[in-house]
Design a protein that fits this description.
single chain, alpha/beta, 6-stranded parallel beta sheet, 32% helix, globular
Length: 308
């Protein structure tokens, strides 16, 4: 594999616990495990086999309260994201959930929602921002990048621009996306990219060193692309976030991936290169240098862009 030097550096840093912390930096809460879009690359698509086999489950209110109480008790200052691979606006309680989370963890750095915009209106967007959202990412899917319409038959990009003008200090991003684009294999579950790897790629992955994705029934997934939750690392109904994060299963999982050993079924078929960029991580003695990590990630990013 090209740029083996980069992966050796990443593996070395991961194996030495550079990104390790007693509590996750990023917590993702999926309050409903469903989506309303037909993106051909996503296992959450209304047309995917995985969706046909999945029962729609909304997170129990008591479970949500337990999660944010634990974040409060930990004085959580990281990133809180109200989505995994689902459409968060399908849950009509989402504004109230955001408001309660913001009150419980006032020092949280980021409260973010990613949405396809099909249910987004200016009124709903404003209520979410006023409740505590400071990052709103709108992926506007269409066949030709011309943009889609929300359920009120208004152009999604028009809604986005109204919110951007109304809330200039908030991070609101409108991204035209192709609904039929081909991305990575999502661990072999992407409907339009059923790539089968003869053997796992021997590349370390940083995601389990900072991400903690919680599905609507409380299961803890492997990472942000785990839509199937076949091998959960725990369940927050039964244990605390901190206990699960530090349990033997999670610790072994991080250790394996730090060495490029993709043992889990999802990881064994994952084509993701295992790095991320643009984040600052708490480490022993300070923070991991964001610019350095971007520099280390650059070769992989260039190669991936060239292959698109």
């Amino acid at each position: 594999m090209k740029h083996e030097w980069y992966h050796r550096i990443l593996a070395s840093k991961l194996s030495k616990g550079l990104f390790s912390a007693a509590f996750p930096h990023q917590v993702r809460i999926e309050t409903i495990n469903s989506c309303n879009s037909k993106c051909t690359f996503c296992p959450m698509s209304v047309n995917s086999e995985e969706t046909k086999l999945r029962n729609v489950v909304k997170m129990d209110d008591d479970l949500f309260e337990k999660i944010i109480k634990e974040l409060h008790d930990e004085n959580f200052e990281g990133d809180l994201k109200f989505y995994t691979q689902n459409e968060p606006l399908l849950d009509r309680r989402i504004t109230d959930f955001v408001k309660r989370a913001k009150k419980a963890v006032p020092k949280v750095k980021r409260i973010q929602i990613d949405t396809n915009g099909l249910l987004l209106t200016e009124e709903l967007g404003a209520s979410l921002i006023e409740a505590g959202i400071n990052h709103l990412h709108i992926n506007d899917y269409s066949k030709d990048l011309s943009g889609n319409y929300n359920h009120k038959k208004e152009k999604i990009k028009n809604v986005a621009f109204k919110l951007i003008e109304r809330f200039p200090t908030k991070k609101i991003i409108h991204r035209p996306r192709l609904i039929e684009e081909i991305l990575d294999s999502r661990g072999g579950h992407a409907p339009n990219n059923r790539t089968t790897l003869a053997s796992p790629i021997k590349v370390p992955c940083i995601y389990p060193s900072f991400q903690f994705p919680i599905t609507s029934n409380g299961n803890v997934g492997l990472c942000c692309v785990d839509a199937i939750y076949e091998e959960p690392l725990g369940n927050v109904n039964n244990d605390t976030i901190k206990d699960i994060w530090n349990n033997n299963a999670y610790t072994q999982f991080r250790d394996e991936l730090s060495k490029g050993q993709r043992v889990k079924k999802l990881c064994s078929q994952c084509t993701f290169s295992g790095h991320t960029r643009g984040l600052t991580y708490k480490v022993k003695g300070g923070y991991f240098n964001r610019l350095l990590y971007r520099f280390l990630s650059l070769p992989i990013k260039i190669i991936l862009n060239m292959r698109k």
